[in-house]
Amino acid sequence: MSAPFAKLPNWAEYGLIPLLNLIAAFLISGLVVLFVGENPLRAAELMITGAFGSGEGVGYTLFYATNFIFAGLAVAVAAHAGLFNIGVEGQAYIGGIGVAAACLMFDATLPWYVVFPLAIVGSIATGALWALVPAWLQAYRGSHIVITTIMFNYMANSLMLWMLINVFKPFGSMAIQSRTFEAGGQLPKLDWLLAIFGLDNRNSPFNLSFLLALLACYLVWLLIWRTRLGYEMRTLGHSSGAARYAGISEKKIIIVTMLISGALAGLLAINSIMGDQFRVQQEFVAGAGFVGIAVALMGRSHPVGIILASILFGMLYQGGAEIAFEMPNISRDMIVIIQGLVILFAGALEHLFRPAVTITFARMRRGGAPTTEAAGG
Question: pTM value?
């Protein structure tokens, strides 16, 4: 009876099942497009060309993907320890306070390559600090991490609004935003990177924080699969009883893991604040923290998978804007529905096709090795 539920090959686990979920999401999305009287194939063409058909489109796609990489890594690190961090959105908001402090204090006196490390430190520190309280409540008081991190999202939004009105907003200004940063608070664009592939970045905000996101992916891979701490995190995530039996401190791992997760979430703020807006505005996270949950699930909490899933969601954001512009019957709200369907199949229905795939592989094994199956039975 255990054969149908045996472990799948890696290519099926990390490739086939996410692909099936994605195909199902796009098929349902096609029906939605057809329902409003538009051609699904034309919509798919517009989405792909809008996201990858020009250097500017690629730049916007990778700009959005940068936010999703940080958010996906934050969710994934927590998930490896058996924690469900839904507070990435709020941790990213608070990370913006650290970025804003570095830029507003030093943008006029220091060059960007000095302010940038200061902003990294500030975003890491503030994001981790915001994740510390839910972590402590989980470790020492048994409060569920999902509930506390959700509550902290609303608190973070309110705190950022208070900071914008009372601290960051210039005196006499009516707009709820900080002043525009000087050159020291603005990250350079990655025009040269796209130029290597013959692409013109033009006006897209694709900037240096993309390379920071790739570096974060590599460091997370090292942490999870090449360090003792990562091993302890994965052990706790698989079985808290086994972790305690092995002498692993559950409280310590919970707190350290959430600090790392919050730090990664805080880094998300750099891309929007220093790389695009050059100021602090309301809603600069724009839901990326919640998209990070689907990114981590689709990417199987592995950095490589997270990069690929982030580019996919970047395509949905940039290509969706192209569809809304070219197809009058498809509003921006319809694009949100399509994005929601992808999140639904990648998240809540992530195991929809797993039973059928597992049974298929089990039957293939029985057909190829009957003696082994007979012996095991």
Answer: 0.91
